[in-house]
Amino acid sequence: MSVALLEQDGLSVMNVGLESFTRSVTERGGQALQLDWQPPGDADASLAWALANLAGDADDPGCIGSRIDAANKVAVERITSAQPMLVDVALHARDVWPDIGRTLLHAGAPIAWDRMCGPMRGAMVGAVLYEGWADSEAQAEEMLGRGEFKFAQCHDYGAVGPMAGVISSSMPLFVVRNETFGNMAYSNMSEGIGRVLRFGANGQDVIDRLRWIESVLAPTLQTAVRAIGGLDLRAIQAQALLMGDEVHSRNAAATLQFLAAISVPLADAPGDRGPIRETLEFIAGNSQFFLNLSMTSSKATMDAVHGIENCSIVTAIARNGVTTGVRVSGLGKQWFQAASEMPQGLYFPGFVATDGNPDLGDSAICETAGYGGSSLAASPALVQLVGGTVAQAVGYSREMYEITAARNGALSLPNLDFAGAPCGIDIRKVVDNGMRPVVTTGIAHKQAGVGQIGAGIVRSPMGCFTQAVMALAQQAKPAC
User: Nearest-CA neighbor of 337 among 352, 359, 353?
Assistant: First the structure.
């Protein structure tokens, strides 16, 4: 909402006591100031009051807002001190979760079969075919429609999956441990580009690729990781920021570092050289291979932040293609959801915005840990893919400073004079400033199996954060 203030005797005054009031002030016609401002909570009085009750008070350390500030400092310390290490490759998900059975994990918050978007439904069918639980696509769809398989969220299993995010019993997993706090995180593996399960493709070529990952890629990577004794993922991510990645939608530098790290131990490995060559060739031809590792590193980091009493820091942002869900450290496992928005960006030749599916995937976990949209200033090259300018990319990272609790000095952004990346999205600041988190993302076709049709920027829906603020205010009573 724009507010025009008359200028009297060269002075304009409006006592609103809001940080956001001072943003984007421009003089119009020499007579008035035009302010790009809106009241907290979209002028919802109850929300504004809840937000006010959650504000810190330096003079009253016992105030709920001050207790939230103290809890958030603990959260930031856990983010900045995290050490996510790739410690193993599990050859099958059932080796990690023996009771997974015929449960199918998916990206985002809970969703029933009849509400799933096209790419997720297609991926579910593909997983059923891959596991051999059905003989045809039609049979798989019928079984899924009858409720023969249980659905669960990747996040509830300590896991993350890109786009549709589907993980089933036989799929191999990256195994990451946060060495600082001891918690574990998992992800499936990149299938490469083209027709892939994560975009809902489920033909024989997709199933054959998944079985190759299970029989060749995973065992070869397991050999390399065990020979190395563990791989420091945050060190790779931090270096990649200095090399032009934001380590979400662009992972070219991170993938090359990972390839370098596994090449020597694989060169020394005994046995058949064929699988090693296939593995190295596959990774070398897939510049986004590291994305699943970046996601798992971020998951291991942020799970250690979850569960801090009174903490208002976001520990997960996840999208199922229908809704976007947010989890908050001090608010348990509840998902605060709102309708997913369409990413704004560039489409591949032959596709237009109406072809796209609303935002999808668990990969926004990267933003919660300080990568992706938070670190977009580090990746001018990504602008060519998502649209916009280098100045806008820098501007997105500057915006994220306004809604986060701190800067992570371990993650330097060269185009911001090597300032630390924004970290710790604070739901109070999102609602107060009216700034929604920026997420870099791929754009999936709304029809199963077509695949990625573009890339761009999306904002997490404000409704997620307003709901979370109200929940935190209710939980935090009495206030100051």
Answer: 359
In the predicted model, residues of the chain with pLDDT beneath 50 are: 1-28, 30-31
Between the two ends of the chain, the Cα-to-Cα distance in Å is 30
Angstrom CA distances, 54 to 127, 381, 426, 476, stand at 45, 40, 11, 8
Per the CB < 8 A criterion, the answer to whether 197 and 116 are in contact is: no
**What's the CA gap between 129 and 111, in Å, rounded?**
21
Determine contact, residues 462/440, Cβ cutoff 8 Å: no
**Beta carbons within 8 Å of 15's beta carbon, 6+ residues apart:** none
Tens digit of pLDDT for each residue in 2-45? 333 333 333 333 333 344 444 444 444 544 555 555 666 666 88
Name beta bridge partners: 423. Answer: 406
Parallel, antiparallel or unpaired: strands 2-6 and 32-36: antiparallel
- pTM for the full predicted model: 0.90
In angstroms, the Cα distances linking 223 to 263, 267, 305, 446 are 11, 11, 31, 38
CA dist 336 and 333 (Å) reads 10
Nearest of 339, 325, 432 to residue 41 by alpha carbon: 432
**Cα gap 111→336, rounded to integer Å:** 14
Strands 360-361 and 404-413: unpaired
For the sheet with 336-339, list strands across it. 336-339, 323-328, 314-320, 360-361
Residue 478, preceding peptide bond in cis (omega within 30° of 0): yes
What is d(CA 277, CA 145) in angstroms, rounded to the nearest whole number?
A: 41
Scored b (16 or more CB within 10 A) or e, 375-385 reads: bbbbbbbbbeb
* Angstrom distances, CA of residue 94 to CA of 38, 120, 457: 50, 21, 35
Q: How many residues would you count in the chain? A: 480
Please state, in angstroms and as integers, the Cα–Cα distance from residue 67 to each residue in 315, 433, 480, following that order.
Answer: 18, 21, 10
3 state DSSP class of 478:
coil
Q: Is 318 in contact with 109 (CB distance < 8 Å)? A: yes
pLDDT of 172-190, one tens digit each? 999 999 999 999 999 999 9
Give rounded-to-5 percent helix, strand, coil for the chain: 45, 20, 35
Nearest in space to 305 (alpha carbons), one of 295, 296, 315, 316 = 315
- The residue assigned the tokens 């970046």 is 294
- Give the integer Cα–Cα distance in Å for 79 and 373: 17
Which residue(s) pair with 90 in the sheet? 173
The separation between CA 256 and the C-alpha centre of its own chain, rounded to angstroms, equals: 22
- Measured between alpha carbons, how far is 462 from 271 in angstroms, rounded to an integer? 54
